[in-house]
Specification:
The chain is built from seven helices and no strands. The chain has 212 residues and is mainly α. The chain has one domain (6-29, 38-195). Helix 1 (6-28) runs antiparallel to helix 7 (166-209), helix 5 runs parallel beside helix 7 (166-209) and helix 6 packs antiparallel against helix 7 (166-209). The longest helix has 44 residues, at 166-209. It is elongated and about 55 Å long. 44% of the residues are buried.
Length: 212
C-alpha cells in the first residue's frame, strides 16, 4: 500500500510555500512603519492593514493543505493525523478572525494558541512504534521535534512580552511547523522508492552471477 498519495506531497509542499510567500509579499505592501523582525504575522491580516487579503488567503491555503496532508499521510499514526487536520482547521479559524485595527481579538488569540499547540504535538503523536517506520515517524524523532517547537513557542512568548524580535521568533516557529509535515511526507516517499528499488537491485545481482 502506498505510504502517501502524490497529492499529499503537493499539499505538504504548498503549505510552507503559501505561508512564507504570503507573509513576505504582504510585508512589502505595508507602510514604512511595519517591521517584520518585531511585528507579528497577524498584523498583516488585521483590519486596517494594507491588502490584508493576501495574508488571510495564505492562512486559508495553509489550513486546507494541512487538512489534505492529514488525510493522505497514511503512514503516520491516526492521532497525529487528527491533530494535523485540527491544526489546519485552526488556521482557517485564525483567517476568519482578523485582529481589529490597533487592538486584539480573543477569538484570534485562542485559535492561534490552539493552532500552535496542535502543530507542535503533531510530530510526537504521528510517530509509529513499528521499528520499520521511516526516521521522521520514529518516537525519538517526533519527541525531539516537538520539544524544539515547544522551545520556539516559549521564545516567541518571551519576545512578544519584550517587544524585541517577536516577529522573527514567530516566523521561525510557524515556518518549522508548516514545513515538518513536508519532511515527513518526503521521508515516506523516499522510503517507498528504496523498497521498490531494492528488489530490482537484488534481481540484477542474481542475473549477474547466474551461469550463462
Amino acid at each position: 500500500m502506498m505510504l502517501v498519495p502524490w497529492w499529499a506531497l503537493v499539499s505538504a509542499g504548498c503549505a510552507p510555500v503559501a505561508l512564507i510567500c504570503g507573509w513576505a509579499l504582504a510585508a512589502t505592501l505595508q507602510p514604512a512603519g511595519y517591521d517584520a523582525m518585531v511585528d507579528s504575522i497577524s498584523a498583516l491580516a488585521a483590519q486596517g492593514a494594507a491588502d490584508p487579503w493576501l495574508m488571510t488567503g495564505s492562512l486559508y491555503v495553509l489550513g486546507v493543505c494541512h487538512l489534505a496532508t492529514a488525510i493522505g499521510l497514511r503512514a503516520a499514526a491516526l492521532s497525529g493525523r487528527v491533530v494535523l487536520a485540527c491544526g489546519g482547521v485552526a488556521s482557517v479559524v485564525v483567517a476568519l478572525s482578523p485582529e481589529p485595527a490597533g487592538g486584539t481579538s480573543l477569538r484570534h488569540l485562542v485559535s492561534t494558541g490552539i493552532g500552535f499547540t496542535l502543530l507542535a504535538l503533531f510530530p510526537v503523536l504521528a510517530a509509529e512504534r513499528d521499528t520499520s517506520a521511516v526516521w521522521a515517524l520514529r518516537p525519538t524523532t517526533g519527541t525531539v521535534v516537538t520539544v524544539v517547537m515547544a522551545a520556539g513557542a516559549a521564545w516567541f512568548l518571551i519576545e512578544l512580552h519584550g517587544h524585541s524580535v517577536a516577529g522573527l521568533a514567530e516566523r521561525i516557529l510557524t515556518a518549522v511547523q508548516a514545513a515538518w509535515p513536508l519532511v515527513v511526507v518526503v521521508a515516506c516517499v523516499a522510503s517507498l522508492r528504496r523498497r521498490e528499488v531494492s528488489p530490482l537491485r537484488a534481481a540484477g545481482r542474481e542475473d549477474a552471477v547466474r551461469p550463462r
